[in-house]
Design a protein that fits this description.
161 residues; alpha+beta; two-stranded antiparallel ribbon; 3 helices; 22% helix
Amino acid sequence: MKRVVLVTVLIFAVSLVSFARKFVAEGKTYSALGNYKIEIADNPVALKGKELKAFVISYENTNMEVTVAFDKNRKGMTYYVLSDNLSVKYVCTGNHFGVAKLNKELEKDGYRTSDSALNRSEYFHQKVITTGSNCDLDNSKLIAAFYPMLINNYENILAAK
């Protein structure tokens, strides 16, 4: 009987681990949202007819989750930052990394940059966050730290956990 219970507990523990997202990084936002955690998304994101790999960013002081799908193209790397509050993209060319509004072609997928939800002052401050070329992980950390400030009145999405 002890072996049956032990095997059952072991199987249960292994199955729980297989359903968890894979941890990638964590850090500070220096905002009211608190620390962030980046994990690999369970499923790819479908945009413009392509399946894109994605990260999920979660914040310490809110239930908001942000999905970051990334697409490599001839000009560099594009990071599509998708959430219920605000959707934008960050573009990494060989020269700089910064924010941009979503194109009209993503509206058919249900994503667009809402001008009423966008903090325009912060948007123009983030047009160029850094110069040079970074790796995907560094850029994802920058997105996690800077993205909350793009949301108008982001303090309204705070919820105590």
